[in-house]
Amino acid sequence: MLTAPRIVTLAAPVHPSVTCRFKRLLDIVGALVGLTLTAAIAIPIAIAILFDSPGSIFYRQLRCGLNGRPFYIWKFRSMVANAEQLKHLVQNEAKGNIFKNRNDPRITQVGKFLRRASLDELPQFWNVLKGEMSLVGTRPPTFAEVAQYKHHHYQRLAVKPGITGEWQANGRSHVEDFEEIVKMDISYQQKWSIAYDLHLIVKTLQSVLQKHGAY
């Protein structure tokens, strides 16, 4: 059973993307393709992670999903095993309610490669298949982040969190201002359509292949 801090989300109309059957079908098909790819390369990734740094292969963290629902997000581990306990030793270079550091010493050598190639994100296709996430949505925040939300930030929770989205496709790690991320997430909700989702997926793939903006 998940245990998460109690948060108060604002009552709002259900976003059309949440109930769109075609979007869910796209998520299922994309998740199956993604999990097939993950299975094909999981063994060499697992060996590299274990050889580089002791600890588990996967990283699991409690995140805040649609309308504040808690879920565990899955990734290939890209940091040292005790990264959360060392976070206070790392300077936050981002502005606002988000944590970023371009040279975070907690990231392992293999982790740097996984992040640049976005391979650490592959296990999230399992979250998509379960319906906790979508291929395209907003960045899934931690509950510590949501606990500091102001009124206008809650609109980010009106859609399912996504593996990619407006911020990842158009900014990735170059955007370091939380308010700018919020604007991009809300912009996505306003512009949403299946065609726009497909556009962001293609744009994200191009960014990943060219290794633009990831760290």
Overview of the structural elements:
The structure is a single chain. The chain is mainly α. The protein has one domain (16-210). The protein has helices at residues 16-19, 21-52, 83-86, 109-116, 124-130, 143-146, 166-170, 178-191, 194-210, and strands at 58-64, 70-76, 134-136, 162-164. The strands form two sheets. Strands 1-2 form a two-stranded antiparallel ribbon. Strands 3-4 form a two-stranded parallel ribbon. Strand 3, helix 6 and strand 4 (162-164) form a beta-alpha-beta unit. It is globular and about 45 Å long. The protein starts with 15 loop residues before the first helix and ends in a 5-residue tail after the last helix. The model has no long low-confidence stretch (mean pLDDT 88).
